[in-house]
Structure formats: structure tokens, C-alpha cells
UniProtKB/TrEMBL annotation:
Keyword Oxidoreductase recorded: yes
Residue span(s) of domain ER-bound oxygenase mpaB/mpaB'/Rubber oxygenase catalytic: 50-276
Keyword Lyase among UniProt keywords: no
EC category name: oxidoreductase
PANTHER family assigned to the protein according to its UniProt record, in alphabetical order: BLR2777 PROTEIN (PTHR36151), ER-BOUND OXYGENASE MPAB_MPAB'_RUBBER OXYGENASE CATALYTIC DOMAIN-CONTAINING PROTEIN (PTHR36151:SF3)
Record-level Gene Ontology MF annotations: oxidoreductase activity
Protein name per UniProt: Oxygenase MpaB family protein
Keywords recorded for this protein, A-Z: Oxidoreductase
Source organism of the structure: Demequina muriae
EC number: 1.-.-.-
């Protein structure tokens, strides 16, 4: 839908503010490279991964993923010790969104280059938890946990708030496609179907608990977001939607049961997704689903 006058101006301002927060100061330059560079892609234009990752529901799914990922003490120790999630939260978000965009929509060459860069970073991230357990970001099991928490979150959010429903079998296809990226990063035994995803969560469940860093992350993301006070009012529905989509056991671990209601949480997620979609425009209008390049 095309607007004119004050409404169009408001939409443009909101879209610019959202985009630069997510993609960082170089976001427009990166977007041009991703979508305008000719060459084969990892995924075809009509791939479920493009539909899911190009949708506004990723805002809700991304926040859910951060909360869920924090429940693995070794993964959370790596984030707390090396990524600066409190000191530079927007920088971390921009790096994550850029990786997602290049591997989903970029050329095969750029996607592989991005994977190689992240693998090099992971090799340098290592240390010990507060109770002395060693961790390294390149550990295949930790990489698989981060992937399944992210894939499940994006898929869950899209199935709830996505612009175009997935067809029969497309959820499994999404998992196979996102799993390709995870395997390229070094993850192993990556789930290929919804059933395998459920089995993977059951396998990791004994390892998951809310460490001090995880509780601090939930506090930071839900009650102290790095946003101006006026903007926090708009952030609240998004946060409520993300919490509402968490498994019951995850909310209990993080001590955020009271954030979840049967009505406001899902409604908040729907309102937030529609607002983001209005500000940024649909995935189709941004060209994400019109790429006709070959796949690799």
C-alpha cells in the first residue's frame, strides 16, 4: 500500500529508524550489495527461508531466540564474556542481522565469506564459566544449540504472525535450508524436520538452566531495553509477544511467567509485527522475494 503526505513521511521516518537500528550505520550499503549483486544464491527466490527471514515477525522471533539461547550456561558465558551485549547491544544486533541477510539473500560467494568470518571469530572465543567449566564458541554442540533455538524461534514467530502462511512441508524445508547455514558454521546433527527439532530440544533440556548471566539478559532485554523511554512503549508489545511464544519451562527458568498472559502476549506480538511491517514495508516490496538468481 502506497501512502502520501504526512502518513508517508511518518512511515518513512519509522522505517529508517527501524532499519538503521537493526542493520547498523552501513545497513543501506550492505542491503544494496546483498540484493543487487548478480550471481548464484544458496536459496531460490521462493525458498521458505527467504519468506521467514524476510518477514517482520523476525523481530519477535529474534528476541525469543535471545532469551532461549541464554539458557545454555556455556553459550551464555561466551556471549557475556565476549560479545558486549550490554555495552554494545545494537552493534551485536547489526552483526547478527547482517549475517542472516547475507546467508539468506546474498550471493553464494558473499554468504560463504560471511560464514568464514564468523568461524574465525568463533575460534577466538573461549573461556570458563563462573563455576570453572570450559567453553569455546566453535564447539559443534553449542553451535547446534544456538541454531535450534534460533530456527525454532523464527519458525514459531512466523507461523504465528507471518504475512503468508507456510504450505504443507515448508516448515521442514525451512529447517533444512537454515540447517545448511548452521552446518556451514560447524554445527552437527542439525535437525531437518519438526520432529527432529523437538527431539533435539529434549536432548538439550538437561543442560539448560538460568545462570546469573541468563537472568541478567532477561532483565536487560525485557525491563531495561537500550531504547529511549518514549520508544519503550512500542517495544513492550514486542517483548510480550516474544515471551508468550517461549516454552513454559523456559519462562519458568527465567522467572518471567508474569510477563505471559493468554491475551496480551499474543496480541502484543501481533501489534508489534504489524507496526514493524508497516514501517519497513512487506518483504516483497523490499525485493527479498523477487530475486531470480540461480542457486548454488
Amino acid at each position: 500500500m502506497t501512502f502520501s503526505g504526512p502518513l508517508a513521511s511518518a512511515q518513512a521516518r519509522m522505517g529508517h529508524a527501524l532499519f538503521t537500528r537493526i542493520a547498523g550505520p552501513d545497513g543501506y550499503e550492505a542491503r544494496a550489495r546483498i540484493h543487487e549483486t548478480p550471481g548464484p544464491r544458496w536459496f531460490p527466490a521462493d525458498a521458505p527461508i527467504r519468506r521467514v527471514h524476510g518477514d517482520a515477525s523476525t523481530f519477535v522471533g529474534g528476541l525469543r531466540a535471545l532469551l532461549l539461547q541464554s539458557l545454555h550456561p556455556l553459550a551464555m558465558a561466551g556471549v557475556a564474556g565476549h560479545s558486549g551485549y550490554r555495552g554494545d547491544p545494537w552493534g551485536r544486533l547489526a552483526r547478527t542481522s547482517t549475517f542472516l541477510a547475507f546467508t539468506t539473500f546474498g550471493t553464494a560467494e558473499d554468504a560463504q565469506d560471511m560464514v568464514d568470518r564468523i568461524r574465525a571469530v568463533h575460534e577466538r572465543v573461549r573461556g570458563k564459566t563462573e563455576d570453572g567449566r570450559p567453553y569455546r564458541a566453535s564447539d559443534p554442540r553449542l553451535l547446534t544449540w544456538v541454531h535450534i533455538a534460533e530456527a525454532d524461534s523464527f519458525l514459531t514467530a512466523y507461523e504465528r504472525y507471518g504475512e503468508r502462511p507456510l504450505g504443507p512441508g515448508e516448515a521442514d524445508e525451512y529447517l533444512q535450508q537454515s540447517g545448511r547455514v548452521a552446518a556451514a558454521l560447524g554445527a552437527e546433527n542439525v535437525p531437518q524436520t519438526r520432529r527432529e527439532l523437538e527431539e533435539a530440544f529434549a536432548d538439550y533440556r538437561p543442560e539448560l538452566e538460568a545462570s546469573r548471566e541468563a537472568l541478567d539478559t532477561a532483565q536487560f532485554l525485557l525491563r531495561e531495553p537500550p531504547l529511549p523511554r518514549a520508544v519503550r512503549l512500542g517495544y513492550a508489545p514486542l517483548a510480550a509477544g516474544a515471551v508468550a511464544l517461549l516454552p513454559d519451562w523456559a519462562r519458568t527458568e527465567l522467572g518471567i511467567d508474569r510477563w505471559h498472559t493468554r491475551t496480551f502476549g499474543p496480541l502484543g506480538g501481533a501489534v508489534a509485527t504489524r507496526a514493524v511491517r508497516w514501517g519497513l514495508g512487506s518483504a516483497e516490496s523490499r525485493g527479498h522475494l523477487r530475486d531470480t538468481s540461480r542457486t548454488a
